[in-house]
Design goal:
heterodimer, A: mainly beta, four-stranded antiparallel sheet, 56% strand, B: mainly beta, seven-stranded mixed sheet, 11 strands
Chain lengths: 118, 112
C-alpha cells in the first residue's frame, strides 16, 4: 500500500532561517511523483514543488527545494530564508496508483504546521 | 482564467438533506478529483474522473455520488447528509495522471 508519513505535527522557525519539513513515503511502484503543498490559514491548497522518481536532480522552486533521497524513501522540503508569510500547514503527497488502476490522484500525509517567528 | 472554482463556498445542512457541490475548471483538464479534508487527517480522495462521462470511487466514496456530464464540470452529490460528512471539500483537476493538480478554494460543509 502507498503511504505518506509526516512525523512533525508542528514546527517553529525564526524568520530568515532555513527549515526542513520531513516526509517519508512508501510505495512499490518504480515510477511515482512526490509533491508538496502549502495551505495557509485562508484554506486554499497551493502547489509548491514536484519531484519525479526518475529525476536525477533535486527539484528547486525559488526558496523551496526538495531533498530527495530515494534509497531512504524520503522527500523533505527545505525552505530557505523563512518569511512570516510561510506560516502555514504543509502537506507532502504522492501520486497514487490504485483504486481500480487509476492514476493521478494524490495520497496526502497529515501535514506539518509551520510557524515563523519574527 | 479562473482556474478551478467551487460552488458554494459554505453550506449548512440538516441531517437527511441533500445537496450538490459544483466544481468547474477552465483549463481543459481531463482529470478531476473530489477530496475531503478533516482535522488531523490530511486530504482523502472521495471520487475522481479521468474524462467526460467517466467516474470512479476513491478512498472514501460511501455516501457520495458524482457525475461528469461535461468535461469542465464535476459534481459531487450528497443524497442524505450525515454529521460525519461535515468537512471541507476540495476539488482538483490535472492534465493527466502524472501531474499533481490544481485545487479549488474549497467548500466548508456543516451537517447538523
Amino acid at each position: 500500500a502507498q503511504k505518506i508519513t509526516q512525523t512533525q505535527p508542528g514546527m517553529f522557525v525564526q524568520e530568515k532561517e532555513a527549515v526542513t519539513l520531513d516526509c517519508t513515503y512508501d510505495t512499490s511502484d518504480p515510477s511515482y511523483g512526490l509533491f508538496w503543498y502549502k495551505q495557509p490559514s485562508s484554506g486554499e491548497m497551493i502547489f509548491l514543488i514536484y519531484q519525479g522518481s526518475y529525476d536525477q536532480q533535486n527539484a528547486t522552486e525559488g526558496r523551496y527545494s526538495l531533498n530527495f533521497q530515494k534509497a531512504r524513501k524520503s522527500a523533505n522540503l527545505v525552505i530557505s530564508a523563512s518569511q512570516l508569510g510561510d506560516s502555514a500547514m504543509y502537506f507532502c503527497a504522492m501520486r497514487g496508483r490504485g483504486y481500480g488502476g487509476s492514476q493521478g490522484n494524490l495520497i496526502f500525509g497529515k501535514g506539518t504546521k509551520l510557524s515563523v517567528k519574527p | 482564467n479562473a482556474g478551478v472554482t467551487q460552488t458554494p463556498k459554505f453550506r449548512v445542512l440538516k441531517t437527511g438533506q441533500s445537496m450538490t457541490l459544483l466544481c468547474a475548471q477552465d483549463m481543459n483538464h481531463e482529470y478531476m478529483y473530489w477530496y475531503r479534508q478533516d482535522p488531523g487527517m490530511g486530504l482523502r480522495l472521495i471520487h475522481y474522473s479521468v474524462g467526460e462521462g467517466t467516474t470512479a470511487k476513491g478512498e472514501v466514496p460511501d455516501g457520495y455520488n458524482v457525475s461528469r456530464l461535461k468535461k469542465q464540470n464535476f459534481l459531487l452529490g450528497l443524497e442524505s447528509a450525515a454529521p460525519s460528512q461535515t468537512s471541507v471539500y476540495f476539488c482538483a483537476s490535472s492534465w493527466s495522471g502524472t501531474t499533481g493538480g490544481y485545487f479549488g478554494p474549497g467548500t466548508r460543509l456543516t451537517v447538523l
